[in-house]
Design brief:
This protein has three helices and 23 strands. It is mainly β.
Length: 326
């Protein structure tokens, strides 16, 4: 499947009347090196990810190598403004660059440095010069594959470097706690079954004992479907019948966002979004595509199926069935 320049979720957001905060003009293609036609002449950075969420950058920047020990040499991360941030100054984090002993410059982003959720563009700066975008070299993301965080109640930090469609280096950052990681999805003709794991709570089994799964419609926040789950330690499983979502469907696109919630818990806070972020795939829409299933609804013939949003959150779409499939 060839990747598109823009995430499919941006059209979903437009059709549901809700702009998406990551609907930006420069989105990822793959996590490998970009086409050589892009970014020629810009300095290159290799990046190594560790399993805790930290990143190490090694730069080829010959024009700065003679002054690498100067205090002002820095790796600059700038968070892209979303729809809700228009008019505000871009958030920026500067990391010092120092020689790494191999004739290159190194910057380290520890997992303990909070990086708010979003897309961060990576630059190199020297003194008062305008920062220059970096081109990705080797992206070593092996430690992110099948990542299973250890026990903790602190927010889970996930950072995935990637090459944008313009050939620049960017990061996608998540900071979540608690976090519900989606695993295997089983698609039946009339229901979706999801297996997942809950992280960043003190006692996952006790937390899940009070939890249910909620599907909330973006078109109308008052439309909510609730289904039970089963738990084994931190692992959970639930089945969501499409009939629970399609009774109120009246044509067009309906998107239902999936969360865990503890309605009876006194200390219940915001619902926990179900997402898939614990691997090396920055944009799940391009990799995990699920064919919709034909369903019958009280209104008309439709189709339903799961998908991952631009934030790698798990949602379900109910949409009109194409004429050829009726």
């Amino acid at each position: 499947m060839m990747p598109s320049d823009r995430p499919a979720d941006s059209s979903d957001a437009a059709r549901s009347g809700q702009p998406h905060p990551t609907d930006t003009p420069e989105e990822p293609t793959t996590v490998s090196a970009p086409p050589l036609a892009f970014g020629m002449g810009n300095p290159t950075a290799d990046c190594i990810a560790d399993s805790a969420g930290g990143l190490t950058f090694d730069l080829d920047a010959p024009e700065h190598s003679g002054t690498a020990d100067h205090w002002s040499a820095a790796l600059v991360l700038r968070r892209r403004a979303g729809a809700a941030d228009e008019g505000e100054e871009a958030e920026e984090i500067r990391l010092p660059l120092t020689p790494n002993g191999d004739g290159r410059l190194r910057a380290v982003l520890p997992s303990t440095v909070a990086l708010p959720e979003g897309r961060w563009d990576v630059h190199v700066a020297q003194g008062d010069e305008e920062p220059v975008r970096l081109v990705p070299g080797l992206l070593d993301l092996r430690s992110l594959v099948d990542r299973r965080p250890g026990p903790s109640t602190s927010p889970l930090a996930v950072r995935i470097p990637y090459a944008t469609k313009h050939g620049n280096l960017s990061l996608r950052s998540w900071l979540r706690g608690p976090h519900a990681e989606a695993g295997d999805l089983l698609l039946d003709d009339d229901a979706l079954t999801v297996h997942g794991v809950l992280y960043r709570v003190e006692d996952p089994e006790a937390w899940l004992a009070d939890a249910v799964v909620e599907a909330r419609c973006r078109r109308d926040a008052d439309l909510v479907a609730t289904v039970p789950l089963t738990a084994d330690g931190a692992d959970f499983t639930f089945t969501l019948p499409y009939a629970e979502l399609s009774d109120e469907w009246r044509g067009g696109l309906d998107v239902w966002d999936l969360t865990l919630r503890r309605p009876e818990a006194a200390d219940d806070k915001d619902p926990v979004r179900i997402a898939r972020i614990l691997d090396d795939v920055v944009d799940k829409q391009q990799i995990f595509a699920y064919p919709p299933r034909a369903i019958d609804t009280p209104y008309a013939a439709a189709q339903a199926g799961p998908y991952y949003t631009a934030d790698n959150d798990l949602s379900v779409r109910i949409d009109e069935r194409p004429p050829a499939a009726r």
